[in-house]
Write a structure and sequence with these properties.
16 strands, five-stranded antiparallel sheet, alpha+beta, 2 helices
C-alpha cells in the first residue's frame, strides 16, 4: 500500500447490483422454501457456536431458484473490482449463503480470513462480497473497518478477506435483515 492509499480504497460499494423486485422475490422465495439452519461462528481454529452470532442461514445451490440473478449481481460487482485490482485471480466462488437476521439478530466483529468454514472449499478467500436484499429493518448496520455502510436494497460491497477488514452486523432492533454472501477463492 503506498503512503497515500487508505484501507477504504479497497472497499467498493455498488449501490444497485440487483433490482428491488428481484430482491423482494428472492426474500419471499427463500423465506418460504429454504431449509434454514442456525448459523454458528467459526474462527481459523474452531467453531465457537452461537454466542457470537444470532442468524439463520441457507446455502444456495446452483439449481436453486434465483441462483442466476444472484450470480449476475455478484459478477457485476466482483468483475468491476478485479478490473481495478487485476493481480487478484479468482478461481471459484463459494456457494452463496443467504442470511436472515430476525429481531435480536447480530454478528460480532470478525474477519473472513478462514481456511475451512461453513462447508466452503478449502483455502483462504481473496475477497468477500455481500448483496443487501432489503433495507426495511431497524438496527442491523453492516460496519466495515469501523464505518457503517449505507443500507440500500440491491446494493453490494466487495472487500479483501483478511485481517485488515474486520466487520460486524449490529443488533437488529425491528424487522428482518436479509443479505447474501459469497467468498471468492
Amino acid at each position: 500500500m503506498s503512503s497515500n492509499q487508505q484501507i477504504s480504497d479497497y472497499i467498493y460499494y455498488y449501490p444497485q447490483v440487483l433490482d428491488s423486485n428481484i430482491c423482494n422475490n428472492i426474500v419471499n422465495h427463500f423465506d418460504k422454501n429454504a431449509k434454514w439452519t442456525t448459523s454458528t461462528f467459526s474462527t481459523a481454529y474452531k467453531n465457537t457456536g452461537t454466542s457470537q452470532v444470532t442468524m439463520d442461514e441457507y446455502w444456495i445451490r446452483s439449481k436453486d431458484e434465483h441462483h442466476g440473478h444472484l450470480k449476475a449481481g455478484f459478477e457485476k460487482a466482483v468483475n468491476d473490482y478485479i478490473g481495478v485490482y487485476d493481480k487478484i485471480k479468482i478461481q471459484a466462488y463459494t456457494q452463496f449463503r443467504i442470511n436472515r437476521y430476525g429481531e435480536g439478530g447480530f454478528m460480532n466483529t470478525h474477519i473472513d480470513n478462514i481456511h475451512y468454514s461453513h462447508g466452503q472449499q478449502q483455502g483462504y478467500p481473496h475477497l468477500t462480497s455481500l448483496i443487501f436484499l432489503n433495507d426495511s429493518y431497524d438496527g442491523g448496520e453492516f460496519v466495515l473497518c469501523g464505518e457503517p455502510l449505507e443500507k440500500k436494497q440491491g446494493s453490494a460491497v466487495v472487500f479483501p478477506s483478511n485481517f485488515m477488514f474486520p466487520h460486524e452486523v449490529k443488533l437488529v432492533t425491528e424487522g428482518t435483515r436479509w443479505s447474501i454472501l459469497a467468498w471468492l477463492m
